[in-house]
Structures are given as structure tokens and as C-alpha cells.
Write a structure and sequence with these properties.
The protein is mainly α. It has one domain. It has helices at residues 3-26, 32-55. The radius of gyration is 13 Å and the shape is elongated.
């Protein structure tokens, strides 16, 4: 897998998690634990994208 393909995959996963977070936050009683885990995943993806951008 090329670096560009990997970054695009990370971007797609990041966007998917953003969508899930947005839907969860719209629920009458959002699951705070689920939101926390999703936000951690999103942050890890963002950190990986930044790390790859710096290496490139």
C-alpha cells in the first residue's frame, strides 16, 4: 500500500468516525463512554496522519 493510499484510508476512517460521533451526539441520551472512545480513535487517526505527513 502506498503512503498516499494509506493516508486516504486514514482520512476516510476519520470522516466515518466523525459521522458516528455526530449521530451519537444527536441522540436524546448520548452514550458518553462510546463518545469518549470514538473521540480517542479519531485523535489516534489524526495523530497518525500528522506523523505520516511529517515523515513525507
Amino acid at each position: 500500500m502506498s503512503l498516499q493510499t494509506h493516508v486516504e484510508s486514514l482520512n476516510q476512517k476519520h470522516a466515518e468516525i466523525e459521522d458516528i460521533i455526530a449521530r451519537e451526539e444527536l441522540r436524546p441520551q448520548p452514550d458518553a463512554l462510546r463518545l469518549m472512545e470514538l473521540k480517542k480513535q479519531k485523535l489516534r487517526l489524526k495523530e497518525e496522519m500528522v506523523r505520516l505527513a511529517v515523515k513525507h
